[in-house]
Every structure is written in C-alpha cells, then in structure tokens.
Amino acid sequence: MAIEVGRMGTQAVAGERITGDATGRFPEWLFRSMTRVAAFAIVALVILIAIQLVLGSRLAWQEFGLSFLTGTDWNPVKDIYGALPFIVGTLLTSLIALVIGAPIGLLTAIFLAELAPPRVAAPLIFLIELLAAIPSVVVGLWGVFVLAPTLKVTVETWIVSTLGWIPFFSGPTFGVGVFTAGVILSIMILPTIVSIAREVIRAVPDGQREAMLALGATRWEMTTRAVLPYARSGIIGAVILGLGRALGETMAVTMVVGNSTDIPDRLFDQGQTIASQIATTFNEAAVGLQTSALIYLGLVLLAITISLNIVARLLVWRVTRPIGSET
Amino acid sequence: MAAGPSPAAAQVTLHGAGATFPAPLYEVWFQDYNTAYSNVQIDYQANGSGAGIKAITEQTVDFGASDAAMKDEEIAALPAGTKMLHFPTALGAVVVTYNVPGVTALSLDADTISEIFLGTITKWNDPAIAALNSGATLPATDILVVHRSDGSGTTNTFTTYLDTVSPEWHTKVGAGKEVKWAVGIGAAGNDGVAGGVEQSEGGVGYVELNYAVKASLPTAKVKNADGQFVEATTAGVTAAAEAAQANFPADFRAKPIINGAGPTTYPIAAYTYLLVYVDQKDADKGKDLVSFVYWALTDGQAKEADLGYAPLPKEIVQKAIDQLHGVTTGGSPIWP
C-alpha cells in the first residue's frame, strides 16, 4: 500500500486513474488500501489468535502431549488434566442438536422454498431469523427456568418409561443434562440450517423441477427426487455449519448441561462441553498448568471448528456457484 | 481507636478487582467511604479471586481482593522486588442448604456431610442422618448433590473442611477452589447452587452464609468441635476466628478456620482479604489506600453483621492496623 502511495505522483499504473487533484474525488489508492488493510487485518487476527493459543498451551502440551485428548480425568487438585470428557460432551450435545435440528430445519427450508406462498413465507423467514438474534444467555435462562423442568416431567420421563431398559436411555433424570443441552442447541442452530438450506434449494434450477413435473411427479416426488439430490451437498454444508455453531455455543449450554467433569454415558447424564468448561473455570484457574490446560482445550475446539467450517464452506460453494451450462 | 489517616486531598479513583464473595459488602463500604471523603472514588470488579490476583500481579488495578490467601506460586509470580500485603477485611462461612420435603430443620455432622458429598449416603432417610435428627421424619428421597461448576473461594473453604474432617475425602478428592467432585451436578455461582437445590427435591448444596441470609435459604445445623450443633451465624463465625487467632500466621495468609474450639463456634469459616503492595508507586493512591483500609478495619466492621458477614476479632484488627503502618511509598512509610 505504501508503494502505491509513492507511485501515485510519478507514474500511471495500467488501468488505474490517478486522482487526488483539486476536484476532491475520493482517491482510488486510498480505497484500495483501506479494503486491503481491512481484509488482511481480519486474517492476521485469526492467525494471531491461533498463535496465542499455541503459545499459551505450551505448558500443558509439554506435560501431556497428545494424551491430553484421551485423558479422562480433570483434577485441579492433583494437577491432572484430560480433555476426553469435554470432547465427548461437546460432540454428544452437538450430535443431539443435529439429530433434532437437521430434519426440522430441512423440512422448514423445503416448506419455505417450495411450498409456501410468498405472503406466508416472508413473515416466517423473518421470525426464524429473529430466533437467531435472541442472545444466547437469554436462551440459557429460558432453558434453566422453563425448558429443563418441562423436559424433565414430560419428554425425559416418557423416554425413560418406554426405552429405559436400554442403558443409554435409562434414568435418573434431573432436567439438566446432555439431552437438554442438545435440545437448546437444536433451537439455536435452526435459523442457520433453515436459511442456508433454503438458499441452496432455491438455487436448484427450475429446469430440474419442471422436467420432473412434466413427467407427472407429485410435489413430494419432485422435491425428493429432483430438488434434494441436486442440492444435497449444499444441504450437508448447511447442516455442518449449524454443527459448527453448536460446537462453540457457550452461555446457553453452560446453564443446562449439568457441568459434570465425567464422561456422559447416558442420554440423560450430566456432562460438560469444552466451551462451557473454559467459560466457567478460566477466571479462577490457577496460574500455570491449569490455565495452560484450559488454553489447550480452546485450541482443540478451534481445530475442530475450523476443520468443520472448511468442509462446510467447500460443500456449499460447490453447489451454489453458477453452472454455465444450465439455463 | 485513635483517629485514622485521612486520604490525599486530590481527586482520585482507586480501581480494584477480585473476589465475588465480599463484593456486596465492598459496594456498601465504597459508598459510605465516599460519603465521608468525597474526593475518593473506588470502583471494583467482582470477577473472581483468581482474576483479582492476576490483575494485582500485573498491576492493572490498585488493589486486589481474594477469598483465599495467595499461594506460594502466586507470590513467586509477583514482579521482582515487590511484596504483597494481605489485609483481612471480613469473615465468611459456608453453610449447607437443603430441600427435603417435610423437613424444616436439619442437623448434620462432619461424617454425614462428607459421606453425602462423597455419594456414600444416597437417601435422606439414611440411618446416619436419622440418628442426628431424631425429631424429624426423613423421607426416602434420593439425595441430589449440587456443587459449584466454577472455581471459587467458597468451594475452597468447604473442601478444606471436608479434607480436614474426612480421611476418605482427603485421598479421593482433596481441597481447592475447583475439585473433581465424586457426585452431583454443577452450577455456576452461589445463585446457581441455591437455584439447583431449590428446584430439586432432595437437593443439597453449599453456599456462602451472606448469600443464604439474603435469600432466606434453609440451612443445616453443623456439629462443631465441641460437640454442639450450631446454626451458622456471624457471631459464631467471629467466635471461631477468635478461638483460632493464636495460630494466625505472621504473613496474614491464614487457611480457612475449620473446627475452631468453643461452644458457639461455627466450624466452616474463612477470611477474605484485600491485597495491597507494600510499596505504593503513586503517593496519593497509597495514602487513599491506607486511609480506606483503616476505615474498613474500624468503621467498616460495624456494617458487616447486617449484610451477613462476620466482623473480625479485635486482635486481628489490631494486627492488621499494625501492618498498615508498614505500607510505604518510595521507601518511606505513609502512616508512620
């Protein structure tokens, strides 16, 4: 950028108008510099965050290495730290969120993109996006005071009474636990899944739909056999992006997940996620190994989230870029 | 008491950070002190003892506050050539709160408390609990333990009690601001634990006395070292501190006061501290700090009982005032 500033007064760069004269028009070089600085600053910030995490976790890395990822004990008194309970908790709550949220989100997206008349679709889209705007901590409060007690006496009791003979679905149920956290997460990732899936479904060329309908298919057949297969990778991308949000969600989860540092072995067991563990214990963590272990945890979460986001972006990009041969 | 030092004449704002436990008390103190000396404003961030110790070590605040005295590693992390003084300001107690249907008064002792929190006792009508509560009908409800999910001085005090009284607890769990609990669900903050207990039949948890007083929570009587079952009161806590004051360390870094002697003492108590550097870089701020700490140790003590904090024993107040004379700025004492 500095080089371009120096060049301005002395020579013309091909294709670029030199301005900055008395008419006071906004200088082209300034525009290019500002946008370039902004873009690189953001990238630099992400890289710096990753570097800080790596530096901060060095102590824990020296102490535990990769066995941190399989360690099951988190014991600040004995200074032994293992991340497995939190990795399992994070993945389990996110999985529950997906199992509940993906089908509902997909059906909603199909409804909004294919079936709903515009005057119904528009307010619905607005309301679903409003759901994304509710602060996480407010959702968490609602979860603690409304959702957890309600789930405990209705859904959880019903599941235990019908499926309780399977150890995974057995009681006791306390309302707070991995299941409730999963339900709350599913509510929070719905807007993400719905809006991206809706875009992806709308991007399916009408030619596909018309061809199917011309062959005498019903709307259901057209949707399942022409639209969805075409949009498949984009929908998977939407779901993975929703998963990415679920992995990092902190405040809502920490209030309803039960905060137990043991690996959850039942659906209604208490657990803990990486984000929640860091948020609740970082302030009082002992300087030294405990703080370093928490930063190491953060690094693990960052790695999981980044890889998932890259996969999702690639999938969504693959389906929504314009394909020249289509009409 | 002789009149204390007054603050510097300049308009100053002191910044502090640290423990959440004394925050309600400090807020009242800062306001009252400002009424007395309107040129001194004090603001305080209650983001936890650990954060307070980090902040005062990095000198981003003028004073810190912590429920637990600084550990050796934390003192070693202080900037070279500096020394930190601990000033006790109040005493707190940890109480056991419960939610047992049909029970309005509960008595527990060291063995039953440790076995409940270890998960060895699982029902409220267990013979060990029934033996201590002959007058009450205890239901067969499951016990649900609610503990802190965040690190806290309250946990430190409570686990130190359990660590002292139960060898099994000592081997299995140990004491600290954050421990690996044997059973139970975690909740954040005193309010989280209280809420968790209130919402679950059969719930039992531990909270700070001042919080229990403010929220009118049912609290259990605990058997003290003399064999008496005592309700947690500020008087009982001060009595515990008075009985233990002969063992008060010279560097003021006292451990929680467990099972103090005396008929009325409550067995689970701990000091909370203000952390101030011996040598103050800013002379005005140093004068204000000395003046405020003196006020806190004298006039401030009168406010404590109403808020649920136990006042310091007189001997400890005198020791702290003596230590206050040692605060210097640029090498020379502020209040000789």
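qc> Residues 244 and 305 of chain A are 6 Å apart (CA to CA).
qc> done
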